[in-house]
Amino acid sequence: MSFFGSLDTSASGLTAQRLRLDIISQNMANASTTRTEEGGPYKRKSVVFEQVQNESSTSFSSILNRKKQSGNNGVRVAKIVEDESEGSLVYDPTHPDANKEGYVEMPNVNVIDEMVNMISASRSYEANVNSFNSMKAMFTKALEIGK
Fold first, then answer.
1. What's the whole-model pTM score?
2. Dmax over Cα atoms in the chain, in whole Å?
């Protein structure tokens, strides 16, 4: 793997995890939003990742040669999807979004699950930072050997 290819792999992970943290933060910020522009309560969002592949040909030798030369692998965000599960109903007849029975449909965001996801994304981000710094230190030491 080339110098820049290995750094690109870590950088793609950093970018993807940062977006994941942004979406988790958005979910937590809207955990009590009962009215959106689309109508109804806020729907929880999640990030779907996919592997970055630059392979137009599928023969083994062509893939091997490309991997030796470029190393353009990593991860990217394929899409952001909404969770279509129903939120809980809370009895609050004074709420402006209450139905005729007095129940308000709340968002389908579980703050505890979001905190767990946030810890996971933070640790993944940290791992990518450590990988990036380790590669940088390795290449620096390799350059010192040549002196």
1. 0.81
2. 80
